[in-house]
Amino acid sequence: MGDNPPPLEGGQSGQSQMPSIVEGINGVASSYDYPEPTPEGPYQILDQYHSKPRRLRVACVGAGASGLCLAYKMNKMLEAGTWELTLFEKNSHYGGTWLENTYPGVACDIPSHNYTFTWDPKPDWSHFFAYGPEIQRYFEDFAKRHGSERYMKLSTKVTEGRWDEEQGIWKLTLEDQNTKEIWHDWCHVWINGTGILNNWRWPDIEGLHDFKGPKMHSACWDHSVDLEGKTIGVIGNGSSSVQIVPQLQKIAKQVQVYIRSSTWISPPFGGGALAKVQGGKDVDPGHRQYEFTEEDKKKFRDYPEYHLDFRKGIEAEINGLFGMYRQGSELSDLFRKVITDEMNRRMGPGHQELKDFIIPTWAPGCRRISPGDGYLEALVQPNVEPVLKGIERILPEGILTNDGVEHKMDVLVCATGFQVAFKPAFNVINAAGKSIQDDWGTGVNLYMGVSAPRFPNYYTIVGPGATWSNGTLLPSIETTIEYAVKMMKKISTENIKAIEVQQEALDDLYNHFDTFHKNTVWKEECRSWFKDGKVKNRIYLWPGPTIHFLKSIKDPRMEDYNIRWRHGNRFAFLGNGDIKATVTKDVHGLSSYMRSSDHEWSVD
Ligand SMILES: Cc1cc2nc3c(=O)[nH]c(=O)nc-3n(C[C@H](O)[C@H](O)[C@H](O)COP(=O)(O)OP(=O)(O)OC[C@H]3O[C@@H](n4cnc5c(N)ncnc54)[C@H](O)[C@@H]3O)c2cc1C
Ligand SMILES: NC(=O)c1ccc[n+]([C@@H]2O[C@H](COP(=O)([O-])OP(=O)(O)OC[C@H]3O[C@@H](n4cnc5c(N)ncnc54)[C@H](OP(=O)(O)O)[C@@H]3O)[C@@H](O)[C@H]2O)c1
Q: In terms of domain of life, where is this protein from (predicted)?
């Protein structure tokens, strides 16, 4: 390891410095078939078969669901021996969200049967909404089944990438998280798989660090602190707090919940499927978690078609509810009425001040809806105090609210959210020496949440503009990864040096976003991480349900991209007149269009 220059420097191929790639098919070989430098002089025919892939070196930031999916899809979609991959992961283990968030009650709020990769059903989930450790085990099991761990370089933080236009590579700067040593690597294609909600942050409250007792953030839980019988302050009213508070209520002497804004606490996503497994029983609306029986699991295992129908039913329900995000729609009005009634009922008689405060005036969905099992019920327990006054400052013993009251506590929990990934948290610098942060200014400039004009061969997985608000994220992650891998294939087989999306294409897309969002609930007066923690901001949410997004990115629209080739002639990849089957002497390959019925055919 060290500061070795990239192998292509001076136009020569060379030995890889990628340390995590093992010997073998996609491993460190002694010689490389990397793309050769642009030849000088007049155009010459390449002595190769049509579309012969060039070895592509890929680096991904992050080994959460996105990184794992990338390793799987590259194996599946690209020819073995033509690519290398390293998943650089800052943590000492992989899993991302589900490794880091270990607070009491952490669970998915999408039915667990739909929180797997779409092609990889898991019939034996223990609960309808699986808890965090089981989800983390799912991803670990997935990684083991597919050998994904061999691509990982753990405890390694990516701090910078600089595009070298001459060589057509990203030069990366990395930091070893144990030794703090800085080293360098490079890649042809760079994937940002850092997720949306990975960068937790302390709230900006005066005196926060003066607090004398234990203090923790929801995304960095301190399990060494004994919470039993303690007075605990929880700041926040988002999805994390909604899961934490009912758990703390059961063990604490007192829980003070500092609520700055109202929020919709809704019935669960996938309610139709839940009612089905519960066999139509009348279930307490505040406790809708369901533990699958051995019989349920056996049925899912033994009848894959039944299991698939079950999963499809949930997905169709979520995709079909997109109308609720249209302002003033029948569905939006219906949701407001149903959720308002249910929230009132769940808080029981009285508690008028809390009800008036917590039930929003803006439409459901403006801020992310939380299906909070047991949250409203916890808020009205005698050992819970919802604090509806603003926080003035934090004191050594507790919190001073702006009505002058000092609230004393033993432990402080900040369920105050994340520095949302509107921009990468590392430096991304283009050929002009400009960072993505400067290039984007105060906004975002990301086509379909994936590609940025002026930053070639760089793909973000489900960045701003993708489906942050519409059900499970995994299908969008998978399809965006397939998109990036299709780009890799094109780069590798057509001898492309740089491919970057056109600003005009993005301008048109944003024009569509802005026009569409004139009538969506997201523009209403709520503060939300969808809007970078602001009440008013441009809306970077996909203008349609997940399935609409998937249809839009399933096949890259090449007409929206500019391409620069490694050779002067874009058709250099046509080569010497051979196709692969000419070289391998494969009779079927040499006659693939001869068939007995009119089905699809292709030429390798
Ligand atoms: C508490 C919580 C609950 C959630 N529940 C749901 C749910 O129910 N349904 C749903 O669809 N989604 C949910 N999400 C969203 C969830 O984040 C995604 O579903 C998914 O797990 C994202 O995977 P990812 O790999 O893209 O990102 P992450 O899981 O965030 O992984 C990103 C990885 O990148 C690494 N990384 C970041 N920066 C660097 C760097 N500079 N160098 C190296 N490595 C880096 C991180 O350490 C991390 O391992 C939830 C999120 C949170 C926080
Ligand atoms: N699967 C799940 O069930 C689940 C669970 C947890 C998280 N998640 C995902 O993660 C996202 C983030 O959830 P989150 O709850 O961690 O964060 P969040 O939704 O951003 O909520 C943060 C909360 O902290 C409050 N807050 C922030 N700074 C504050 C301050 N200075 N003073 C007082 N209050 C302050 C916010 O108040 P304001 O509203 O006034 O800003 C808000 O109530 C979710 O939307 C969801 O996508 C999902």
A: Eukaryota
* 410 and 505 belong to one structural domain: no
Share of the chain above pLDDT 90, in %: 83
Instruction: Tell me how far CA of residue 452 lies from CA of 64, 66, 319, 459, 593, in angstroms.
Output: 22, 18, 27, 8, 38
* Distances from the Cα of 451 to the Cα of 120, 167, 233, 508, angstroms: 27, 20, 42, 14
Total number of domains in the chain: 3
Report yes or no on 323 lying in a domain.
Answer: no
Is 449 contained in some domain? yes
Dihedral sign (CA 503, 505, 507, 510): negative
Evaluate: CB of 90 within 6 angstroms of ligand 1: yes
Residue written as token pair 């890799």: 488
Please write down the HEC assignment for all residues of 9-36: HHHCCCCCCCCCCCCCCCCCCCCCCCCC
My answer on whether 478 and 444 are in the same domain is yes
Instruction: Tell whether 374 and 519 lie within a shared domain.
Output: no
Residues 432 and 514 in one domain: yes
pLDDT computed for residue 357 by the predictor: 97
CA of residue 203 to ligand 2 center, whole Å: 11
pLDDT of residue 30: 37
Contact 465, 444 (CB under 8 A): yes
In terms of domains, do 216 and 351 share one?
yes
Is residue 420 lining ligand 2, measured as CB closer than 6 Å? no
The reply to whether ligand 1 has any atom less than 6 angstroms from the CB of 420 is: no
Q: Is the CB of 546 under 6 A from ligand 1?
A: no
Which of 289, 530, 311 is closest to 422 using CA atoms? 530
The alpha carbon of 238 and the centre of ligand 2 are apart by a number of angstroms equal to 4
Q: Are residues 449 and 581 in the same domain?
A: no
Query: Probe ligand 1: pick from 69, 70, 97, 112, max atoms within 8 Å of CB?
Result: 97
Mutate which of 194, 243, 461 to test ligand 1's pocket (most atoms within 8 Å of Cβ)?
194
Is the pTM for the entire model greater than 0.90? yes
Contact 581, 590 (CB under 8 A): yes
538, 440 in Cβ contact below 8 A? no
Same domain, 188 and 90: yes
* Per-residue pLDDT, 36: 66
Low pLDDT (below 50) residues in the chain: 1-32
Residues 134 and 231 both lie in one domain: no
Is 89's C-beta closer than 6 angstroms to any atom of ligand 1?
A: yes
Residue 511 lies in a domain: yes
Span from the CA of 508 to the centroid of ligand 2 (angstroms):
32
State the sign of the Cα–Cα–Cα–Cα dihedral 387, 228, 101, 395. Answer: positive
* Domain that includes residue 451, residue range: 52-199+422-565
Does residue 600 lie in a domain region? yes
Atom 2, ligand 1: residue with shortest CA distance: 97
The neighbouring-strand residues paired with 413 are 216, 234
